[in-house]
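Colleagues,

For the teaching module next term, I've prepared a clean inverse folding example: a structure given as tokens, and then the sequence designed for it. I'd like students to try predicting residues themselves before seeing the answer, so please don't circulate the second half yet.
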């Protein structure tokens, strides 16, 4: 084909393409549509896509589905607790009583998470702020099972705390130094304290014989305090706001509360991972400012929403 013929063909094709593009449009599937009907075609495509998405797309689990899962998963444990309750024998062995302390603690933690997941699903589905007693009724056996596991964990922690305090007191007494008091003839011993130190009416006491008033910290307590400090130092901190909570906007309130909650949750999770138990008030001393500010923000949010602050 001569060069003139090729040039003529290219010109003709270009003219055809330009003319076609004036009256038609190619979609993402490389199909040509008339510009007069392209909007109708797109509308039909969107409608078809939405229909397919609504029928076959991913959906969040319904409250009924999650509730059925809870009942099925904990049916054995709940049944054992219910049978013991009906028998009226507190010594009857149940699935909870046969668990070790750590097993029961993990079991309770998992149950709490699953119950919160179900309650959150109910609130989302019904647009309620709280789940009512009527809605909880079908899961009564699950709540009773959780109550029993929580009671065992609480009793174990109480017993462990009493044992720890008793051991600490005995250790302090055994470590207390024996004392010898030399007083003048006019000195009168008026009493002896529980810590092993003497109260004297005279001030004439030999300097080298003055006893220690008390032992404030034991080696175990000091080591525990050091461990708690190490855990706290490993947690990234965030700035604590100084503006009164009532002067903050809703967005700032929720943002600061969310940041503090992340820090405190990370501290408690790390403490529980290292220690095997949740931190008590003494363990939280390093985060007193965060807890105090978090409580102020939570109370202010609850006040604005017109409901009491949650625990």
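(Answer key — instructors only)
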């Amino acid at each position: 084909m001569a060069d003139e013929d090729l040039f003529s063909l290219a010109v003709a094709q270009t003219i055809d393409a330009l003319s076609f593009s004036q009256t038609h449009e190619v979609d993402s599937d490389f199909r040509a549509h008339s510009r007069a009907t392209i909007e109708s075609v797109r509308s039909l495509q969107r409608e078809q896509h939405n229909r397919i998405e609504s029928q076959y797309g991913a959906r969040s689990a319904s409250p009924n589905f999650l509730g059925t899962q809870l009942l099925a998963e904990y049916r054995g444990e709940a049944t054992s607790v219910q049978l013991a309750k009906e028998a009226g024998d507190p010594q009857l062995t149940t699935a909870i009583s046969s668990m070790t302390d750590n097993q029961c603690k993990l079991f309770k933690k998992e149950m709490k998470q699953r119950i919160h997941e179900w309650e959150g699903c109910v609130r989302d589905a019904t647009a309620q702020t709280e789940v009512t007693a009527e809605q909880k009724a079908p899961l009564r056996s699950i709540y009773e099972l959780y109550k029993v596991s929580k009671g065992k964990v609480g009793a174990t922690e109480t017993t462990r705390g009493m044992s720890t305090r008793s051991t600490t007191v005995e250790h302090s007494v055994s470590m207390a130094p024996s004392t010898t008091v030399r007083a003048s003839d006019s000195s009168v011993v008026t009493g002896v304290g529980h810590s092993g130190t003497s109260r004297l009416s005279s001030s004439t006491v030999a300097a080298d014989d003055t006893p220690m008033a008390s032992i404030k910290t034991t080696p175990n307590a000091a080591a525990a305090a050091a461990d708690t400090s190490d855990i706290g130092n490993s947690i990234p901190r965030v700035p604590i706001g100084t503006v009164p909570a009532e002067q903050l906007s809703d967005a700032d309130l929720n943002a600061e509360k969310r940041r503090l909650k992340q820090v405190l949750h990370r501290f408690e999770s790390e403490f529980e991972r290292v220690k095997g138990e949740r931190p008590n008030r003494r363990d939280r001393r390093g985060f007193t400012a965060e807890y105090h500010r978090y409580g102020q923000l939570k109370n202010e949010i609850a006040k604005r929403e017109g409901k009491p602050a949650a625990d």
